[in-house]
Structures are given as structure tokens and as C-alpha cells.
Amino acid sequence: TVITINGIDFPNGLNNQTIGGLSWTSSPGNFQQKTVAGYTGVGITGGRTGDEIDIEEFLTATSASFPFWVPSFTLGVLFDGPEFDDVQEVAQVTIVSLSQGTKVFKLTNTYDAIIPPDTASWTGFGTVTNLSPSTGAGGAVWKITNPFGSINDITSIEFTALTG
Amino acid sequence: SDFTLVQLQYEPVP
Q1: Which of A6, A43, A129, B1 has the most CB atoms around it within 10 Å of its CB?
Q2: Which residues in B have their CB inside 8 Å of a CB on A?
Q3: A33-65: per-residue pLDDT in tens?
């Protein structure tokens, strides 16, 4: 049975909460929802932006009782440069697998002068789909399907930002 | 760089 956890499920202002059967923590700030172009994601208070997962901020989900497989995850407001005078943004995703240990992956929104297509590169498995474009009016939303391939003994997953 | 988590799907493995 696939369980879906959405950004709107995170209570603003907390930093440690069981949501959808996983233990979620944020550090060093607290959960903070942000809605852009109709997509609500959870970020973390403090840092460069007060409502996104910034460099040196970490959102982590841990399972103490069972390992799991990840059918998909979706990230928002991962832009690629000129919309907000920003860089090609990079998300780092780290998993801990019982059989394979710690594995680190990156999602980079690669700049496209003309969109569509709007593209991003993922160092893991599966496919990358753009759900909302990387434009000033868009949400720069990316869905990664089957991101870790057949790894099905994951016990934690952590999201943080890298320098773009 | 900065972003939000919009959704995570997982499936427990017995």
C-alpha cells in the first residue's frame, strides 16, 4: 500500500512530528508551508528563505519499525536562474538503506532558455517530470518517479539544498 | 538553492 504525504500535512511551527506513519524532523528551524502556483510544499523557517529548505537546513523522515520503498517524491520552487535572479538550484536527497548504506543523490534544475521543455537532471533512477514550469508565474515543481530504483529497504530520507 | 517538499510517497516493505 502506497502512502502519500503532502506538504499541507505538516503543521507550521513544529520540528518533530509523526506524519503519515513516518517520523519527520526539521532542523535547525521548524516546518513552514509555502504555496506557489497552487502547489503547497513544506519548507523550514530561518535560513536564506524563511519558508524553504535552504543550504544547511534538513528535512528528514525516518521509519523505526519497517523499511520502505519510494515510488515518488515531488519538490517545489526549485528554479533555474533568471526568474528570481537566482542560480540553477540543487536539491540533495540522502537515503539510508539497510543493504546499501547511505546513498546521496542530486536534483538540479538545468536552465532552458525557451520552455517547454523544462528540464532537470536527477542523479538517481527513474524519471523526472515537470508539473509546474520554472517561470516567474510557475511553481518550478518536479516529480521524480521511482527515484531510488529497486532499493526497497530504506529507513530514512533527508532533503537539503546545495549551492547552485 | 532552496526548495520545498510538495509530496513524498512511500510503501512499507514487510
Answers
A1: A43
A2: 1-14
A3: 999 999 999 999 999 999 999 999 999 999 999
Q: Do A3 and B4 touch (CB under 8 A)?
A: no
Q: Tens digit of pLDDT for each residue in A93-110?
A: 999 999 999 999 999 999
User: Which of the residues A56, A73, A122, A151 would you substitute to probe the B interface, choosing the one with the greatest number of B C-beta atoms within 10 Å?
Assistant: A73
What is the overall mean pLDDT for chain A?
95
Judged by phi (left if over 0) then psi (alpha if -120 to 50, else beta), residue A114 lies in beta
8 A C-beta contact, residue B11 and residue A83: no
Q: Is the pLDDT of residue A82 over 70?
A: no
CA distance A48 to A111: 22
The whole-angstrom separation of Cα A108 and Cα A12 is 27
**Burial label, B5 (beta-carbon count in 10 A; 0-12, 13-18, 19+):** buried
Write the ipTM.
Answer: 0.97
Sequence length of chain A is 164
How far apart, in whole angstroms, are the C-alpha atoms of residue A23 and residue A18? Answer: 4
